[in-house]
């Protein structure tokens, strides 16, 4: 399943330190949790959406409610909480592993259906919200070469809720992939 965490950060004085914490400490801690398979962090290059996005591939909701998740980094934002705004979490149906977005690519998200992305020449993956906020209920994601992002964004003007995100980190992967994970 795809687990997304979106937010903005309201304190410019501590934002760089928060980004270091999230990218260098939190993501490696999360990928070590049993049931996490991939983790990658992004920053919006579009307006009108939360600035930061983390996309994880996990086994299911039980991973997020488990003790190992709580101990290794789930919800450990106390130091930063007062500055975190526009915070949203969703768990989307299984689309396989989240795509790894390279430094010269961007992630494109749309909640208006796949057609706007298809018209832009992309091949979107459909996701259905199944837990947590469940909003937006459906989302489509695609990967786009970064040099095409501005051209595609201009073509998408007037089509609401298409957002572009540049990777802040490489995609981290766990030592145990879903195909090699022990069956329950």
Topology:
Layout: E1 2-9, H1 15-31, E2 36-44, E3 52-58, H2 61-65, H3 67-72, E4 84-92, E5 105-110, H4 115-119, E6 125-132, E7 138-145, H5 149-155, E8 162-167, E9 172-173
Antiparallel strand pairs: 1-3, 1-4, 2-3, 2-8, 2-9, 4-6, 5-7, 5-8, 6-7
H and E string: EHEEHHEEHEEHEE
Structural class: alpha+beta
* Gyration radius over CA: 16 Å
Q: Percent helix among the residues?
A: 10-25%
* Strands in their spatial order, largest beta sheet: 1-3-2-8-5-7-6-4
| Low-confidence segments | 180-184
Large-scale geometry: globular
Distance between the terminal alpha carbons, to the nearest Å?
16 Å
Strand content: 25-35%
Average pLDDT, to the nearest integer? 88
Short description:
The protein has five helices and nine strands. By secondary structure, the chain is α+β, with helices and mostly antiparallel strands.
Question: How would you sum up this structure, described in words?
Answer:
- The chain has 184 residues and is an alpha+beta fold.
- Helices cover 22% and strands 34% of the residues.
- The protein has helices at 15-31, 61-65, 67-72, 115-119, 149-155, and strands spanning 2-9, 36-44, 52-58, 84-92, 105-110, 125-132, 138-145, 162-167, 172-173.
- The protein is globular.
């Amino acid at each position: 399943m795809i687990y997304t965490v979106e937010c903005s950060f309201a304190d410019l004085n501590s934002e760089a330190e928060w980004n270091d914490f999230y990218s260098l400490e939190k993501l490696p801690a999360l990928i070590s949790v049993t049931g996490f398979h991939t983790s990658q962090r992004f920053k919006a290059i579009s307006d009108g959406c939360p600035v930061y996005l983390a996309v994880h591939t996990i086994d299911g909701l039980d991973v997020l409610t488990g003790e190992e998740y709580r101990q290794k980094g789930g919800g450990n934002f106390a130091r930063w909480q007062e500055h975190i705004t526009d915070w949203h979490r969703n768990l989307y149906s299984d689309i396989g592993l989240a795509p790894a977005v390279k430094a010269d690519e961007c992630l494109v998200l749309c909640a208006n259906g796949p057609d706007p992305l298809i018209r832009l020449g992309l091949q979107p993956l459909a996701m259905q919200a199944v837990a947590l906020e469940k909003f937006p209920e459906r989302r489509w994601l695609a990967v786009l070469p970064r040099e095409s992002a501005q051209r595609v964004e201009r073509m998408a003007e007037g089509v609401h809720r298409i957002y572009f995100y540049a990777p802040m980190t490489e995609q981290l992967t766990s030592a145990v992939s879903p195909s090699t994970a022990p069956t329950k």
